[in-house]
Structures are given as structure tokens and as C-alpha cells.
UniProtKB/TrEMBL annotation, chain A:
Species whose genome carries this gene: Marinithermofilum abyssi
Keyword Oxidoreductase: yes
Keywords: 2Fe-2S, Disulfide bond, Electron transport, Iron, Iron-sulfur, Membrane, Metal-binding, Oxidoreductase, Transmembrane, Transmembrane helix, Transport
Highest taxon, organism lineage: Bacteria
Name of the molecule in the record: Menaquinol:cytochrome c reductase iron-sulfur subunit
From TrEMBL, chain B:
Protein topology in the membrane: Multi-pass membrane protein
Xref: SUPFAM superfamilies: Transmembrane di-heme cytochromes
CDD domains the record matches: Cytochrome_b_N (cd00284)
InterPro entries linked: Cyt_b/b6_N, Cytb/b6-like_sf, Cytochrome_b_N_euk/bac, Di-haem_cyt_TM
GO biological process per UniProt: respiratory electron transport chain
Name the UniProt record assigns to this protein: Menaquinol:cytochrome c reductase cytochrome b subunit
Reported cofactor(s): heme c; heme b
Keywords assigned: Cell membrane, Electron transport, Heme, Iron, Membrane, Metal-binding, Transmembrane, Transmembrane helix, Transport
Length: 172, 223
């Protein structure tokens, strides 16, 4: 005498259909969106290219006064490669045999600094918001930058100065 | 003639209720400058929209000559400004309109603030308004790079560094904006895409929501 009780389905037909339609729609939407989003954020996921050392001239050209050298980096910006390479600048000074090559990119917001620019004796000066750095690239407290200027990796080969990657030197 | 055309259409698709619903309302006395001149402050929202329409139209026409490529962008802007009839005017509309639209938006926000119109039940429209504000700033920022002159280049470098200084997501945001390892060919291409497709699209969607809510909730009462 087993009277079978009408078993109540754990999920109603209506609810089942709602879930099916919602997950189908979700699947279609993500199939459409995923390629486009991945396409747009590709630059976040690419690793940078490595930097080769570039010859910027005879090492004995430099002395205790910072001197700017211009050189060219062969770099591909997406599909674009600048004919003759991208122009870059370093401020180079030599004390004894130590060579210090500073990047001119201001550590505040990325403008270009100049040695004794704007009449600021014995300092690097940034025209954008008045940032100052001492001769060894240390930021002057009270001006906008909060880190010393980046340094290029340097090496001397057969009396020629070679500049490599730009290395940051930490903050404060 | 026009009337019979209208009637022909109206018989078939019943357009009278549509425009009545959108346009046929009395302007309350406290927002009508004909009653109280000081009510002109209620015009700033509409003026903002007017300038946005000018931006969209002049921008669409600029793209007939402008090319988003670092070799040619500056030259194309120089050409359209100096060689094309009314080039200076059309570029001028877009150039000055960009600033005027932000000014109008700001004045409109001040009006909403000082009349207390952001309060219940209109909180949500204040939030949409804030999103509109950021989208407009985004349009100004991305548009500024497009002429690819020195000022544009350095303003963008600075802007991207500011983005990079945001906690946690800063670096990702900066590389998303910059596109490549330098501010260059890829940056210009994506700023163009953001400036003429993505941000105007978002702007129009938000404006739609903004106006829908105003229509639904009505203008806020007098002080
Ligand atoms: C509220 C909306 C907009 C704002 C605030 C805005 C802002 C700007 C700004 C500040 C510039 C730089 C202009 C200059 O320095 O002379 C610019 C350039 C440009 N914009 Fe827009 N824009 C808006 C909408 C649009 C739309 C909808 C389009 C196209 C569909 C567009 C297309 C362009 C083009 C092609 C340029 C480069 C030409 C030039 O620099 O004169 N803009 N925009
Ligand atoms: S970018 Fe150099 S001081 Fe601001």
C-alpha cells in the first residue's frame, strides 16, 4: 500500500526555462564581448621589449659638468618604426672614472628637464611645474618631483660610452 | 501641403501622442525667465546639451579631413584649418566648444547644487550627472591629443602619468591609455577611437537616462 506521493519537482518548469535562457544569453554575450575586451587590453598584457646598449660617443668627451647627448633607439611602436630611430637624450657627467647618465624625464609628471634650464644655476630644471634636481639627479625637496631622475645603465667599451636601459632609483 | 503630409503620416502611425508626450508641458513659473529673470540659471542644463550637439556635429565634420596617424595628424589639422573653406570656423567651433561645454556643465551643476535639486527623489540623476561630468572630461582629454602638436603630446604624457599615480589600478589604466611603450602611434589611434566612438556613445546613453528621469520626475520645486 505504497501510495506514491506526487513528487514535487525541485525546480519549476518556468524557473528552469528562465535559467536556460539566461545562461544561453550570458554565453552568447561573453562570446561576443571576450574577444573585444581582450583585444582592447592587449597592451596591458604585453611584456616590454629589451633594450640594447647604444654607442653615444667617446667616453673622454665627458667631464664634471653635465652634458647632453642625443642618440637614437631603434624601437617599434606597434606597427610604427621611426626612420633613423627614436630620439633620446641623456645628461652625462664624469667624476673621476665614474660615469653618471641621467634620463631627462621629470619624475613628477614626465616633462623634459634641462641642466641649468630657466637660469637655475647648478640644477636640473623642469619647466612644467618648476621641478628642481641637484647635479647628481636628486630631487630638491619642496619642488614637485618625489624621486631622483632615472639613470641609464652605462658601460665603456674600447673608449666608447654605451648607454643601456633606464633604471629608476626609488622615491622620497 | 505640410499639414496634409502630417495628417497622412499621423493617420498611419499616430505620431501626435508621441511628440505631445515629449514636448507638450507647461513651464513652471519658477523656472521661466519670462516671469523671474533669475530663473535663467535653469537654462544651463539645456545650454550644456546645445553645446554637446555642436561638439558632436562639428566633430563629425572634422573627421572628414582628420586622420589619426602620427605622420599625418598634425598635417591634416593644419590643412583643414588653413586650406578648406570655413575650416577655421569648424575647428574653432569644436575647439572653443570643448571649453564652453565644460563651463556650462559646471554652471548647471552649481544650479542643481544650490537649488537642492539633487535631494530625494532625484539622487539618481545627480549620480548620472557625475558620470556625465567624467565622460566629458574624458572627451576633452582624449580630444586634446588629436592635433598631435607639442602641447597635445606633453599634456597627454602628464595626463597618463596622473592616471598611473592612482592606487592599485593606476599602472593598468596608464598602459590601457598609452597602448604602446611610448606615447606614440598606438596612443593616438586609441585616443581617436575613444574620442569619436566610445565616449560619445556612453555620453548619449547617459544623456538619454538623464532626460528620461527628468521627464519622469519633473523639475524640482521652487526654493
Ligand atoms: C562633448 C563632446 C566633445 C568634446 C568635449 C570634445 C573635445 C575635443 C577637443 C578638446 C579637441 C582638441 C581640439 C583642438 O585642440 O583644436 C577635439 C578634437 C577633435 N574631436 Fe572632439 N570633442 C567632443 C566630441 C567629438 C565627437 C562626437 C567627434 C566625432 C564624431 C569628435 C571629433 C574630433 C576630431 C576629429 C578632433 C581632431 C581635430 C582637431 O583637433 O581640431 N569630437 N575634441
Ligand atoms: S613635470 Fe616636471 S615639475 Fe611637473
Amino acid at each position: 500500500m505504497s501510495e506514491k506521493k506526487e513528487q514535487k519537482p525541485s525546480i519549476s518548469r518556468r524557473r528552469f526555462l528562465t535559467y536556460s535562457i539566461a545562461s544561453t544569453a550570458g554565453f552568447l554575450a561573453s562570446g561576443v564581448l571576450y574577444p573585444m575586451v581582450r583585444f582592447a587590453i592587449d597592451p596591458l598584457l604585453q611584456k616590454g621589449s629589451d633594450t640594447k646598449f647604444v654607442d653615444v660617443g667617446p667616453a673622454d668627451e665627458f667631464g664634471p659638468q653635465p652634458k647632453s647627448v642625443e642618440f637614437h633607439i631603434q624601437r617599434k611602436d606597434g606597427w610604427y618604426k621611426k626612420p633613423g630611430g627614436e630620439k633620446a637624450t641623456a645628461w652625462v657627467m664624469k667624476t673621476g672614472s665614474d660615469i653618471l647618465a641621467l634620463s631627462p624625464i621629470c619624475k613628477h609628471l614626465g616633462c623634459t628637464v634641462k641642466w641649468e634650464g630657466g637660469g637655475h644655476k647648478d640644477h636640473y630644471y623642469c619647466p612644467c611645474h618648476g621641478g628642481l634636481y641637484t647635479k647628481d639627479g636628486t630631487n630638491v625637496p619642496g619642488t614637485p618631483p618625489n624621486a631622483p631622475l632615472d639613470m641609464y645603465e652605462t658601460k665603456v667599451e674600447n673608449g666608447r660610452l654605451m648607454l643601456g636601459a633606464v633604471k629608476p632609483r626609488g622615491g622620497a | 501641403m505640410l499639414k496634409s503630409m502630417y495628417e497622412w503620416l499621423d493617420k498611419r502611425i499616430d505620431i501626435t501622442p508621441m511628440w505631445r508626450d515629449v514636448a507638450d508641458h507647461e513651464v513652471p513659473e519658477h523656472v521661466n525667465p519670462a516671469h523671474h529673470f533669475s530663473a535663467f540659471i535653469y537654462c544651463f542644463g539645456g545650454l550644456t546639451f546645445f553645446i554637446v550637439v555642436i561638439q558632436i556635429l562639428s566633430g563629425m565634420f572634422l573627421t572628414m579631413y582628420y586622420v589619426p596617424d602620427i605622420e599625418n595628424a598634425w598635417k591634416s589639422v593644419h590643412y583643414l584649418q588653413n586650406e578648406i573653406a570655413f575650416g577655421q570656423i569648424v575647428r574653432g567651433m569644436h575647439h572653443w566648444g570643448a571649453s564652453v561645454s565644460i563651463v556650462m556643465l559646471f554652471l548647471h551643476t552649481l544650479r542643481v547644487f544650490f537649488t537642492g535639486s539633487y535631494k530625494h527623489p532625484r539622487e539618481f540623476n545627480w549620480v548620472i550627472g557625475m558620470l556625465l561630468f567624467f565622460v566629458m572630461l574624458g572627451l576633452g582629454f582624449t580630444g586634446y591629443l588629436l592635433p598631435w602638436d607639442n602641447k597635445a603630446y606633453f599634456a597627454t604624457k602628464v595626463g597618463i602619468e596622473i592616471a598611473a599615480s592612482v592606487p592599485i589600478i593606476g599602472d593598468a589604466a596608464a598602459s590601457f591609455l598609452q597602448g604602446g611603450e611610448v606615447v606614440g602611434a598606438q596612443t593616438l589611434a586609441r585616443f581617436f577611437a575613444l574620442h569619436v566612438f566610445f565616449l560619445p556613445g556612453i555620453l548619449l546613453a547617459l544623456l538619454g537616462a538623464h532626460f528620461f528621469l527628468i521627464r519622469k520626475q519633473g523639475i524640482s520645486g521652487p526654493l
